[in-house]
Amino acid sequence: MKIAIDAMGGDHAPAAVVAAAEEAARAFPDDTLLLFGDVNQIQSLLSADVPANIVVKPTTEVIATGEEPVRAVRRKKDASMVRAARAVKDGEADAMISAGNTGALLTVATLIVGRIRGVDRAAVMVDVPNLNQPGQVMSYLDAGANAESKANYLWQYAIMGQAYQKRVKQLENPRIGLLNNGSEAEKGTPVTKEAYQLLSQDDQLNFVGNVEARELLQDSCDVLVTDGFTGNAALKATEGAIDTFTKALKQIFLHNGIKGKLGGLLMKDLLKRYFDEIDYESLGGGLFMGVKRPVLKAHGNAEAKSLYATIMQARTIVSSGLYEQLSEDFTARYQAEKAAKTNDSATAE
């Protein structure tokens, strides 16, 4: 497969991007990694024995973090992010990755790569480790693409999240939860109340009801549906809680004298395995759902380890055929709804 990478996006670009790309290229020599960016900077960072499956695509512009997304994408046609998206659009690459401006990445995902027909809004989906079930994840969506949502958007997020968990994570019957301020069906805003009804009436979804924020680390569901503003806040709170828990556990062993150090030594292997399993950076980045091909957003401050994980994530998603399935399913839904409206109009006449 071929993966297009914005080599200039992110706080540690292009050095971290190049390091991750070289590692991935050596691990998977049959893949091709297309690095879009400043050719002089990229080549100065590549090893003398750079793998032949790394291809540098020279660009002359970069979209900075603080730029207005739509304007930047329209004006900077030769930006590394725009060119990477164009490669996916034109079939030169199977997926793209960037750690750059999130708003700009959403713009290129929807305007250049294109939204699937029948999907009302693209959403960002991010996986978070399940502390109760190491090795499993909870998928948050929307995690930041749309600050406000309609009930129908939330229902579509659930459909996309379910497909992801089934196809990529191999869960037979993933549980769908709606983030809310109470477990009762009548709790929440008008949007969440309407979304609750849509989700509960869809017999193709394993909807388990409302999920409160305190339940996010308690194996409450496999797909958490919410608007982008709330989802992003919940995501950062969850990641912060995992970081705090990890640091607190380490402090117990490091600052409790000989007993603590002895306990830590005895549990060293178990703790390492557990910390590896709950390390959210090893899961990769955010995934734009609802667009025609995989577009992945690495953390803005991602180092080489996290970027490598994002490349591995892209490989898994491309291989799964998830986006082809979503495109087929939503297009079929769109055509069925259009046909039904046409029939209703004809009957009314």
Describe this entry's structure for a reader.
The chain has 349 residues and is an alpha/beta fold. The chain is built from twelve helices and eleven strands. Helix 8 (228-254) packs across helix 9 (257-266). It is globular. The chain starts with a strand and ends with a helix. The relative contact order is 0.15. The mean pLDDT is 89.
Could you give the topology of this structure?
Layout: E1 2-6, H1 15-27, E2 32-37, H2 39-45, E3 54-58, H3 69-75, H4 80-89, E4 95-98, H5 102-114, E5 123-129, E6 137-141, H6 151-167, E7 175-179, H7 190-201, E8 206-211, E9 223-225, H8 228-254, H9 257-266, H10 268-277, E10 286-289, E11 295-297, H11 304-320, H12 322-348
Parallel strand pairs: 1-2, 1-4, 2-3, 4-11, 6-9, 7-8, 7-9
Antiparallel strand pairs: 5-6, 5-10, 10-11
Keywords:
349 residues, alpha/beta, eleven-stranded mixed beta sheet, 11 strands, 49% helix, 15% strand, globular
